[in-house]
Structure formats: C-alpha cells, structure tokens
Amino acid sequence: MPAPIDTSRTDYPSAGALGLDAVGSLNPEAEQAWIAVIRKMDETYAELVAQQIELENKNSALEEAHAFIAGVMASMTDALIACDLSGRIEQVNVAAERLLGRSGSALLELKLADLLAPETPTGFGDVLAIVAKRQRIVDRDFAFLTPDGPLPVSVNGAIRFDARGRAVGIVLMGRPIGELRKAYSDLAAAHERLKQAQQQLVHSEKMASLGRLVAGVAHELNNPISFVYGNAHALKRYGERLVAYVDALHGPDPIPMDLRAQLKIDRTLGEMAPTIAGMLEGAERVRDIVADLRRFSSDRREASELVDMAAVVRSALDWVAKARSPAVETTISMASGLEVIGHPGQLHQLMMNLIQNAVDAMEASPERRMVIEGERRAESVVIRVRDTGPGIAPPHLSRIFDPFFTTKPVGKGTGLGLSISYRIAQEHEGQLEAGNHPEGGAVITVTVPAAQGGRQA
Question: How many whole angstroms separate alpha carbon 82 and alpha carbon 69?
Fold first, then answer.
C-alpha cells in the first residue's frame, strides 16, 4: 500500500517549482520536460524488453547446445574423460561410466591418477610429460581400475584450451583393447575375403585370356605343324624308294636298266633338300611360337630386357585377331626404332588385351576394321590401337581403367583387362590413355619410354 501523506510537512515543493501556474496547470516548458522524461522511459523500457527477448533467445540456444552436446556424449561408444591440468576429473560421458563401473557423480570426485591401475603402461606423469610438449596422445595403452579388475584401454587425447588459447585441461578418449582387437580382426578377415575375391576375378580374367591365347596359338601352330607333317610323309616315301634302290644294288639279282627311273631316284634326290629345309622352317616356326609363349608367361620379377614393340604388336595381333571369326580387317603401321626396356611377357599381355578389347568392341559393328600404329616420339614409343566400334561413352571415359568396370554383358568380361594393362604401363613408367576418334570408334594409346640409344625412325 502507498505510504500515507505526512500533512505536518511544510517543505513540499511549491506549485511554481513543479511548473504549475496559479490554476494548477503545467506551463509549456514543464510540459515539454515531462514529455521528454516519458519518452526516455519508454525507450528505456523498450530496450529492456528487447534485451530480455535476446537473453531468452540466447538461453534457449544455449540450452539446445547443451542438450545437443549431452546427446552426442551420451551416444558416443568411446569413453570420454575431461580433466584439468592437475588431473581432477571435470566431465565424463555415459560410455566412461559403463567402462569404469562408476556413476558420473562419483567420477567427478576423483582424479585421473585415482582411476589408473598400478601396472598401467602409461601413467599420469606420462600424460603430463606429453602435455608439457604440447603433443597429442596417440594410441597409448592405459590400464584403468574397474570393479572387475584392471582393464587395458587404448587411449587418444589432446590438450583443451580456453578462449584465450591457454592450456586448461586434457581430454581423453578410450576404447577397450579387446574391442579394438576384435575390430582389427574383423577388418583383416574382410580384407582377406576381398583379396581372395579379387584373386578369383583376376584368375578368371587370366583364364579367359588363356582361352583366347590357346585359340590364337592353335591357329599359329596349325600351319607349321601341317607343313612338317606333310613333308614328313613325303620324306618317308623318298626313304622307301632309296632303300629299295640300295637293296637292289646290293642284291644277288641283276638290276633292271630302268629301275632308277621307276623309283624316281633322281627326282627324289632333287626334292629331299627342299623337303628337309621346309621341315626345318616349320620346326623353327614352332620353336619361335614356343619362345613367344615362354616370354608371355615369364615372371614379372625377372630382369628387364630390350624389347622390340613392333615385334610384340605383330605377335599379339597374330594370336588374337587371326583366330577370330568373322575376320577383322587390320592395318598395321610400325616405324623403326620402337625398342623399349621392359618385360616381354607383360608387354605382350598388354598389347593382347588392347587388341582383344578392340576386336570385342567391333563385334556388333557392320564394319570391322582395326588400325594399329607405332611411332617414336622424342624419348617415347607410342602405340595406338583404333577400332571402328561404337566408341566410349563420355561418362565411361573417366572409369574405363577402373578395376572391374566393364560395359560388356554379364559373363562376357570381368573388367580387369584394361585395368591390368593400365598397371603394366605404369610399371614400365609409361601411361595408357583412352579416347574417341573423330571419325568414330575408340582409340587406346600406349606411351612407354624408349630404350636409350635406340634407333630413330
């Protein structure tokens, strides 16, 4: 209630002092002063209201931030312990409570050293030494005391700084080593399964390449073996004639005058030399094919040697393209001086993969034409294989050399041929590039460093 008015007072301000005139009304000057006071009070009140609203919004945001941080800490699977530089625990999360078997309030009454077992590999002194060097704690082994005994924990940590950048505490994150070992074991098992799957796919690709190789080799071996086989039958007939003639010469009966003509001895003697030469030529061709096979299957760990890429390209073309049906029209242009230093087997496999890929790309094309060009460019040997297929779709250009990427139907390819070729080119300090020809079809370009001192084109 308002205080009663003291009627005995005589020191109240006069009407003039209050700005009142004789009839009790405010004079103009006093009225303006009161209006200014009221306005100032309104402004002050408005500012107070705005500050109150801003403060409420900040409190709401702060509460949301606290709730978010609390939710994050509660959902963490790793134990979190925050302490000051003296080791006094200031904050823990739910995972730390479960790991240490104590409530959060009980942990806040302890120091970090109180939680460490005597046999801990990393003690609180070690933590302080790391902090003094302004370093992070990375995968350090701790032993924490729990109701079930010492528990080995792998811990990572960092220094906590205040708003002025001063070190004020330490934050530790830990996970039981048993869980880490299980996670590493699961990861290792998954990696092993992935390697086995990859090896199976690579083996499948090798078997597919082997099938194509066998078809090409069978085609290549057929001609020289047939030549040797036919000449062997002819040589057998010649031998029979000569044996009959020699037997007649040394026999008891007189020799007929026309026996030499009947047995065609002169013709036989004349044809024996070219027949034997033809057999040797066929045998040498078989020997060369076997040598190519040995180079193709050679171990990549063997020493590098001088390799003529022109010969490699022609051999790969013979093994792949000539065994295909229907036939592929092939144009090959190889300059001289295409020697490189490398592994013949790998380079042969690279070219076989590229030629096979070009042939497969033209399977549904009305025009089946392949152009292979080789040239010496500065200090590099450049081989280009172009086909008349549909070309490479723009979205696929950046992925064509990725392992297991293929546009072939399921069962037609593993997506490893070009990937293996890309790896072989890199192992020879070269590169493999893919693109589309302006006139249509795809172009694969192999660039490999040329052998030093090789012949120039």
Answer: 14
